[in-house]
Amino acid sequence: MVRKSKYFTLSLESLRSLGSWTADCAERALSIYEKHADSDSRPRAAIDGIRVFAGGGKRTAQLRSLALSAFSAAHEAGDPAAAARAAGLAASSAYTHPLADVHQTKHILGPAAYAALALELYHAGDPNIGNGEVRWAIEHVPSEVREVLLQMPARQAGNSRLDKILYELDEGIRGRALPSNRKKQLYEKNRNTDS
């Protein structure tokens, strides 16, 4: 019996596509943070940094620093922390590991999930707002990002609202239809690794 590798191939192009999508997701909630802490530009800088990478820039130590700074802003923020966390996760998406582990899915889904949560909380905890953001993220996810997610185990539904949002994103993105030629490629790849 051949043991299936926990690692998979993850191209720089896929990471750039992921970075662009996560920046789009996080930016949808950024105004919540900026209304609260208008002089703190750390989350905005993190989103700007991942956009540079997504546009062809290098993965630099500066991008990691921008992500960590956005996480620090989230820690200090109180109410709009989820919006700043979304920005930090977007910037750190460039460092997603090609490891088939459910914890890695948060690198992919986290920016969209935290943005949805931030908007939901801002609108008095209205789950319809969060659910709308989940739908937007699913509708706008690039096929390259979906293909990376499909290499990882599916998330399970949890108890917290964030866990539920992560699960809904995971399930929704996995459920999107692939072009028929891509289905065949994935089928062949999985068939070859299972034997």
Please summarize what this structure is.
This protein has 195 residues and is mostly helical. Helices cover 70% and strands 0% of the residues.
Count of helices? 9
Q: Structural class, judged by helices and strands?
A: mainly alpha
Counted beta strands: 0
Uncertain segments: 180-184
Mean pLDDT score: 90
Largest sheet: none
Instruction: Tell me the series of helices and strands, N- to C-terminal.
Output: HHHHHHHHH
Q: Can you offer a commentary on this structure?
A:
The protein has helices spanning 12-36, 42-54, 61-77, 81-92, 105-122, 127-140, 143-150, 161-175, 180-194. The protein is mainly α and 195 residues long. The protein has one domain (12-194). Helix 2 (42-54) packs antiparallel against helix 3 (61-77), helix 2 packs parallel to helix 4 and helix 3 packs antiparallel against helix 4. It is globular and about 45 Å long.
Describe the secondary structure blueprint for this structure:
Blueprint: H1 12-36, H2 42-54, H3 61-77, H4 81-92, H5 105-122, H6 127-140, H7 143-150, H8 161-175, H9 180-194
Tags for this model:
195 residues; single chain; globular; mainly alpha; 0% strand; 9 helices
